[in-house]
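Translate sequence into C-alpha coordinates.
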Amino acid sequence: MTNNTYYVREIAIYLFSVLTLISTALVFYFAITGDTEQRNTATISTTIGVFLVLALRKDQEPDKSNQQPNT
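Result follows.
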Protein backbone atom coordinates (compact mmCIF):
# COMPACT_ATOMS: atom_id res chain seq x y z
CA MET A 1 0.00 0.00 0.00
CA THR A 2 1.48 3.33 -1.00
CA ASN A 3 1.76 6.25 1.41
CA ASN A 4 -0.91 8.26 -0.41
CA THR A 5 -3.38 5.38 -0.23
CA TYR A 6 -2.63 4.97 3.47
CA TYR A 7 -3.32 8.63 4.23
CA VAL A 8 -6.52 8.70 2.15
CA ARG A 9 -7.73 5.59 4.01
CA GLU A 10 -6.88 7.13 7.39
CA ILE A 11 -8.75 10.33 6.50
CA ALA A 12 -11.76 8.30 5.31
CA ILE A 13 -11.77 6.28 8.54
CA TYR A 14 -11.61 9.47 10.58
CA LEU A 15 -14.43 11.14 8.65
CA PHE A 16 -16.71 8.09 8.75
CA SER A 17 -15.99 7.71 12.48
CA VAL A 18 -16.99 11.31 13.16
CA LEU A 19 -20.13 10.99 11.03
CA THR A 20 -21.04 7.77 12.83
CA LEU A 21 -20.67 9.47 16.20
CA ILE A 22 -22.88 12.34 15.04
CA SER A 23 -25.57 9.97 13.77
CA THR A 24 -25.37 8.03 17.07
CA ALA A 25 -25.99 11.26 18.96
CA LEU A 26 -28.95 11.93 16.66
CA VAL A 27 -30.40 8.51 17.49
CA PHE A 28 -30.45 9.44 21.17
CA TYR A 29 -31.79 12.93 20.47
CA PHE A 30 -34.65 11.62 18.34
CA ALA A 31 -35.37 8.91 20.93
CA ILE A 32 -35.73 11.61 23.60
CA THR A 33 -37.91 13.84 21.41
CA GLY A 34 -40.03 10.88 20.29
CA ASP A 35 -39.52 11.29 16.53
CA THR A 36 -39.58 7.63 15.53
CA GLU A 37 -39.14 8.11 11.78
CA GLN A 38 -36.05 10.29 12.16
CA ARG A 39 -34.65 7.95 14.83
CA ASN A 40 -34.98 4.98 12.48
CA THR A 41 -33.20 6.90 9.72
CA ALA A 42 -30.38 7.86 12.09
CA THR A 43 -30.11 4.24 13.27
CA ILE A 44 -29.68 3.03 9.70
CA SER A 45 -27.07 5.74 9.09
CA THR A 46 -25.18 4.69 12.23
CA THR A 47 -25.22 1.03 11.18
CA ILE A 48 -23.89 1.84 7.72
CA GLY A 49 -21.17 4.06 9.23
CA VAL A 50 -20.02 1.33 11.60
CA PHE A 51 -19.75 -1.21 8.79
CA LEU A 52 -17.85 1.27 6.58
CA VAL A 53 -15.32 1.98 9.31
CA LEU A 54 -14.89 -1.73 10.04
CA ALA A 55 -14.46 -2.52 6.34
CA LEU A 56 -11.84 0.20 5.92
CA ARG A 57 -9.93 -0.92 9.01
CA LYS A 58 -10.02 -4.60 8.04
CA ASP A 59 -7.70 -4.17 5.06
CA GLN A 60 -5.07 -2.15 6.91
CA GLU A 61 -1.65 -3.62 7.40
CA PRO A 62 -0.83 -4.31 11.05
CA ASP A 63 1.51 -1.94 12.84
CA LYS A 64 4.78 -3.84 13.24
CA SER A 65 6.57 -1.21 15.34
CA ASN A 66 5.43 -2.74 18.66
CA GLN A 67 6.26 -6.36 17.87
CA GLN A 68 8.91 -8.06 19.95
CA PRO A 69 11.79 -9.73 18.13
CA ASN A 70 11.79 -13.50 18.06
CA THR A 71 14.38 -14.93 20.44
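Note: The helical segments are 3-33, 36-58.
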